[in-house]
Amino acid sequence: MAKYVAAVDQGTTSTRCMLFDHDGGVVSVHQLEHEQIYPKAGWVEHDPMEIWARTQDVVKGALEKAGARPGDIAAVGVTNQRETTVVWNPKTGEPYYNAIVWQDTRTDKICNALAKDGGQDRFRPKVGLPLATYFSGPKVKWILENVDGVREAAERGEAVFGNIDTWVIWWLTGGPNGGAHVTDVSNASRTMLMNLKTLDWDQEILDIMGIPRNMVPKIRPSSDPDIYGTTPANGPFGEAIPVCGDLGDQQAALVGQTCYSPGEAKNTYGTGCFMLMNTGTEIVPSESGLLTTLGYKMGNEPAVYALEGSIAITGALVQWLRDNLNFFDESPQVEDYAKEVEDSGGIYFVPAFSGLFAPYWQSDARGVIVGMTRYINKYHISRAALEATAYQTREVLDAMNKDSGVQLKALKVDGGMVYNDTLMQFQSDILGVPVVRPKVAETTALGAAYAAGLAVGFWENLEDLRQNWLVDKTWEPDMDMGTRKELYQGWLKAVQRTMGWVEQD
Hints:
The protein is of the alpha+beta class.
């Protein structure tokens, strides 16, 4: 009898495979980084073949570490960096171009041109998203218009598109030998091409973007009892296992954090930072710069929607201090540096490297450090980098409270940065609410495992999953209201300094 569910978690900087038992406990994990490619300022790419190679390696590594035998794995779920876009030849599996990463800003001119007729919110009533470089649709349009031969190949049915989930599932289920060309509702809702009401591709938007319908994957439930496909015997799993769970990384964390009731919210601290609030089966339009998105769809149950606040650069800022400025050798050392000083010395670091995401959506913004004096050293900059994550989260939470009419009582957190006590305490201080970390903080992979496990009956229902959620640590606010207000006002002032830096055509 199967003992585990496997999750492939393909993230912005690394890929990992995790095996979970019936209690939602981690049995094994294997993780590998992949190269970040920066061909020009504002351009960010990944090599899709490298990602597939890493996927195979981490699957084999996780199975080996667990000592898993044939029959031990009940199902496979996939979660992924969401808007990162791949176009490939379905006959050969060869990509026509590198994957264009969600942080990439090259589609700025395409978005501006599309906004000339109807403004930045031209498609928002249908898709819940503003026109922004963040989303997949304009990236596909860019590839069709700028990579030789791709449009002709697409017309012949020899070029297909997918976010990274689609790419990984296609390969996991056989690739050129019958691989499933599918995505789920949560990933499809990040393309700017799916209608939120119909849960199908919107033909009018496909036509406006110039994307042939035969390029796009079939949209399926996030947890699908009909399964997307099975892994081949010569694949990394070495046997036929159902692949039947698929969630964009942030929606996967919502599922992993068991936020199944309207008003429940989580914040994931990774390369970027993403807060999602469950709004139930109701589509809630945002008046405050948030995204209306799909949360998940479990089998034949109605789709569940969410409000999302997306922040482009959080953990990536720590990586930037490590890799570009050589402040330290390992990312966790940022906390040691931050603890060397009592505060950030009056500076603010606004990391608008890819423009500003929620709640501003200004692609003409660029990063700034303000308030500099000769007193400032690398310890202050390290602390300001951590504080930037907390301030950006506060902006998103304020918008979420306003849109939903629900005042959050506590914030559930997950992701790599939640083991940074300095950041989590400051987060609680600047929000004025408790911050709660669960026992399994890597809830993105857990959510993908839950989706797959539910599809095959490894778990019976959502209540089963709620029983697995346990608190590991809680941070309580310890800052007076006056200080909180003063610090936050300074941040809002600093954000204004980033805007309008890039001249628009």
